[in-house]
Amino acid sequence: MLPYVPEQLPRNNFVVLNWCAKKLLSLSHWQIKGQLPKQSKFVIIVAPHTSNWDFIIGLLVMFSLNIRVTFLGKKSIFIGPFKWLLEKLGGVGIDRSHPHGIVGQMVTLFNRSDKMILGLAPEGTRSKTVEWKKGFLHIAQQAKVPVVPISLDFSKKEVTIMSAQQVSDDIDGSLSQIKSLYAGVCAKNPHLV
Fold first, then answer.
1. pLDDT band at residue 111 under the 50/70/90 scheme
2. Which domain holds residue 69?
3. Which of 98, 104, 131, 167 is most exposed, with the fewest beta carbons within 10 Å of its own?
4. Torsion of CA 68, 70, 73, 78, to 10 degrees
5. Is the residue at 75 inside a domain?
6. Is residue 140 part of a domain?
7. Which run of H or of E encompasses 159?
C-alpha cells in the first residue's frame, strides 16, 4: 500500500505511467515507507547513490506517488525532442556559468513557484565519495524550505521517506545530522558508500 500524498504537492498526472510504476514496484517487491510532508515546497535528497538503479527506483516512486519532482541536468542536454521530454518529466537545464551559480538559480526557481519539489543526490555522483556536497543545504536554507531525506535500501527493498529537516545556519551541523539518518541503509553497491 502506498503512503498518503498530501493535496498541496505538485502532481505529474501521467495516468498510464503512474499505474505502470505502481505495478513494477509491486512486482519487484519494493515498498515505500513514511510520508511526504504537508507542504508545497521542499528539497528531497535521495541516498545512497551508487548505481543507475537508484534513478530508476526513484522514477518508479515518483510516478507511483503521482508527484512532480524537479531534477537538474546540464543545459546542453536540453535540446531538440529531449528538451520537451526532460521538461515534461520535471527536468531543469542548469547553466553552470550563471553568475549566481546553481544554488542561486534553484532559489530563484523556488521563489517563483507556488509548488515545487527539488530532487537531488547529495553525493553528486555514483562513485565513491568522502563527503556529500552541501549545495542542497544552501538551496533549502536560502529558499526557506525543509529537506526531506529519502533512503533506498536494496537489502530490504525499501524506500523510506524520513521526516522533514529544517536547515540551520550551521550548515556542517545540519549535514552531520542528516547524514546520520542514513546509518545502516544498504546501497546497491555498498563498497561505494
1. very high
2. 15-153
3. 131
4. 60
5. yes
6. yes
7. strand 158-161
